User: Fold this.
Amino acid sequence: MICVNIKDSEFMKDFIFGVFCYNQENYIIENLESIKYQIVNHGKDINCSIVIGDDCSKDRTLKYIKLWLDENRNVFAHIKIIDSPSNKGVVGNYISLLKNIDTNNFKILAGDDLYYKNNIFSVLGDENIVISPMLRFHEKKVIREQRYNLKKFMVISDKQKYITNELKFNNCLESPGVFLDKRLFDEALYTELEKYKWIEDLPLFNYLFSNKKLKIGISYQPLVMYRDDVGISTNKKHVRNLEFEEERLLLEKTINVRKHNLLALRINKTKNSILKRLCKYYYDKFDADMIKFNNNMAKAENEATEYLALIRKNAEDFKTRRGLK
Assistant:
């Protein structure tokens, strides 16, 4: 473990960026550049630190991280690198990061994903969970989608009850876009997560929505970009995908308790079909908040390619300066 105390100042709020990574030398600099973009453009009054968990990468991921932090150390108040001597898996790495975060305001993101250019610090408020839409991308392509799941959350008054029920059928939340208050985490939650190795989000959400009183906020702007073609859950060629799928099936038996109840499944499907139609034919046309959301998403989808090119250029420029190409 490497700890560096960079500077001590008084700021309005503290925020910690958490990064968990394994063999991501092709993407990790882009992730770090997107963090730098947030701090430089939106973090003037935020005391920002970074905690990075490298799960015993076999490539040059850790080398790249150290070189980038050496060049950008003045961006952060504190830096911590957790260099694991053995591979713990996604969940073990995630828990390790959580236990090294000592502020209420934080966000953990995988090393191959990015923060979008919108101000992520805008979610710092009274809510203890904020759900934001994410932009999916791969290579240079930004994927356009309707996002009806999020639209349903927006129109439901009792969001916690609705999401708790939905989690019994499927993981309706996209974890890269979810922001949580650290005060939600306790030893019972860590114990629940430790049952798994590759899947952290569904057990996490199931525990929180079933056991905590949540004050849920919805962001009307995308805050993260999810790379949908390289991760363990989306890339069938990933070396750990088979283990991931086996664990997913186990989770379906223990958490998705109604997925194989045909009557409950039919009722839930009908309910969601009605909600989707309401969004499509009413809220999208007449509701001011939904219209604002749709406009924000269309704008982001149009501008994301240019932003992605900027982040990649910054990453390539860094690699050139440090002789990494």
